[in-house]
Design brief:
It is a single chain. The chain has 3 helices and 2 strands. By secondary structure, it is mainly alpha-helical. Helix 1 packs across helix 3.
């Protein structure tokens, strides 16, 4: 799965925040929804999204989690 096909950012839309292509739905919003609800519920709340969009969001988040973080 190449999340870059579904996750985009444009400085003119949502201030450049990552979002689902073709929507104004931020990736962060979808991640929070997935943390609190079953995927089916997320899709019910956002019918314009697909299962592939949800997988792309998770793949994007997984790549971000690979970033090296210095201990505080």
């Amino acid at each position: 799965m190449n999340y870059r096909d579904r996750i985009v950012a444009d400085p003119e839309i949502l201030g450049g925040r990552a979002r689902i292509r073709g929507t104004r739905i931020p990736v962060a919003t979808v991640l929070l929804m997935l943390a609190r609800h079953a995927p089916e519920e997320v899709l019910e709340h956002y019918p314009e999204l697909t299962e592939e969009d949800l997988k792309a969001v998770l793949a994007y988040a997984a790549e971000l989690a690979e970033e090296r973080v210095l201990s505080i």
